[in-house]
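Entry for S-adenosylmethionine complex. Fields follow.
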Amino acid sequence: MLTLRGCPISRARANWAVDYRPGFVEQIAQWRAALRAELAALLPSAASIVWEIGSGHGHFLARYAAEFPQCLCVGVDLRNERLGKSRRKAERARLPNCHFVRAEAREFLLALPTGVAFGEIWALFPDPWPKKRHHKNRLLQPEFFEAVAARAGEGTRWYFRTDHGEYFREVAGFIPGLKTWQLEPDVAWPLEHATVFQDRAASYHSLVVVRTSHPARPVETVAPGLPPPTGPKSPA
Ligand SMILES: C[S@@+](CC[C@H](N)C(=O)[O-])C[C@H]1O[C@@H](n2cnc3c(N)ncnc32)[C@H](O)[C@@H]1O
């Protein structure tokens, strides 16, 4: 007899059912509630934030926050030890406008308080997932751009840099098909400050996209599915 959490199930259902360990779904709900509470406490109810996705060791955002003290900066990353280093940098440099949050980027989007919008977005050397069968794990995909658009006003810029030529070409290739973002060639970056991964790169490619006036779909419609029981794995 096949069972799912102790309940008998048909062989057909067993072929597609994911057997999350007991309590996992509840744990995810608690974790999402905790992230929502953390962001509600951290961010003013109506705020424009500079968002760094995959902020790593925090070099870039800490420098950005120091250069632009009027900007409220929030970096997200999955890795605790990198977040710890980032927070220590912000503390040492006395940067009350610089915060680092442990969150998966799509979960962060979903947990963001209603009045908070992105003023600027940075994705520097996101994990390229180089193997073809792993491309589906890449964060920068059309659905993600559409989801972020729902929290970005017209004119918001998104800066992207990678040392992975194929990832770069993929992103540059699908942007013209999006209604909510368009490529903005020849725009000067407001800040250049090498990250850990930029320092390791032999060369890299950069692009900037800007939010158009086209209305975005509500963010709920592009929510990620429940993550796998072990959580997303990052190769870098
Ligand atoms: C290749 S590292 C680059 C770090 C930093 N931006 C740099 O240039 O040095 C990618 C970072 O993104 C984080 N990351 C990967 N997927 C993520 C996701 N879905 N949400 C948030 N952070 C993510 C990883 O933990 C890792 O620290």
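NOTE: The domain at 26-222 is CATH 3.40.50.150 (Rossmann fold).
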